[in-house]
Amino acid sequence: MTATRVDADVIRRLPKAVLHDHLDGGLRPATVVELAEAVGHRLPATDPDELAAWFYEAANSGDLVRYIATFEHTLAVMQTREGLLRTAEEYVLDLAADGVVYGEVRYAPELMLRGGLSLAEVVETVQEGLAAGMAKAAAAGTPVRVGTLLCGMRMFDRVREAADLAVAYRDAGVVGFDIAGAEDGFPPADHLAAFEYLRRECVPFTIHAGEAHGLPSIHQALQVCGAQRIGHGVRITDDIVDGKPGRLAGWVRDRRIALEMCPTSNLQTGAAASIAEHPITALKDLGFRVTLNTDNRLVSGTTMTREMSLLVEQAGWTVEDLRTVTVNALKSAFLPFDERRALIEDVVLPGYEAVLCSSPLR
Description:
Belongs to the metallo-dependent hydrolases superfamily. Adenosine and AMP deaminases family. Adenosine deaminase subfamily. The active site is at 211 (proton donor). By secondary structure, this protein is α/β, with parallel strands linked by helices. The protein contains 16 helices and ten strands. It has one domain (8-357): Alpha-Beta Barrel (TIM Barrel), CATH 3.20.20. The chain has a four-stranded parallel beta sheet with strand order 1-2-3-4, with helices on both faces. A four-stranded parallel beta sheet has the order 5-6-9-10. A two-stranded antiparallel ribbon has the order 7-8. Helix 8 runs parallel beside helix 9 (192-200) and helix 15 runs antiparallel to helix 16 (337-357). It is globular, with a radius of gyration of 19 Å. The protein starts with 7 loop residues before the first helix and ends in a 5-residue tail after the last helix. 50% of the residues are buried.
């Protein structure tokens, strides 16, 4: 098949899948303003456009710790039942508007307890909001399925509690687990007991690794903790010389371990220099199972459409490349095999064909 370039309007209509997206990093600016006023939280700006610009500029520090610090304002409005219901529902509707047909959203329940909710109440409230959003999206003719990953914060001591929640709610919309937070100084193996517990309970998990810290964090996540996917993983390129993967990189490629790559976010945290030079393109060309993700749509000022468009415009990606990473994401989604296959065969592949057959190409 001839490689095909497409414009932004076509990209917007392509079916998409996202595996790495944080609930507390994807709020609508206007929602943050309204909820902050309701709970008495002071924001750096009260105009939605100005607030969106503040988030984006504050995150462009080149430092993961400072990037994470911007979340104090989104988390401040996610401490009540009303705030969680609204943000979860809007999260789903925003995915649907962006052409996403499958998404996995992650968040740390332990960060949402200041309003008096219990850990269980946080999870149940978020699931209620996500379900409401999925119902509205389906009624509008833009169905999207969203699964939840519960996170433990790697620098705190409640990771095992979060793992217990993932097991308890695995039949209620929770599809997996993750640890989040500052990587450097907080290795995945610190929480080995939680990961061993999840493996015994057959709950899949991904681990943030290879972003702010290098190959040792990826090795620990995979070979010590047993992660099925890697969040970010851009530093795997440290184990590739002259296009030849080393032992760890070869393990990742040959065993089809998905890399949840987030180009814009990686530029903001200093993990990559530019979209054109981002490792996702070289890794794709070397046969790694790369997936494309937004990470934090508000903080990074992005969408899946924007991430795809940037790769087309600045890294020479084709529609075939976009289809590949979309299928990659669904192959590695934390869903049963038959459900993953149905999404690929019945939704994504026909969706690409329909859009391309009805659109001018360039």
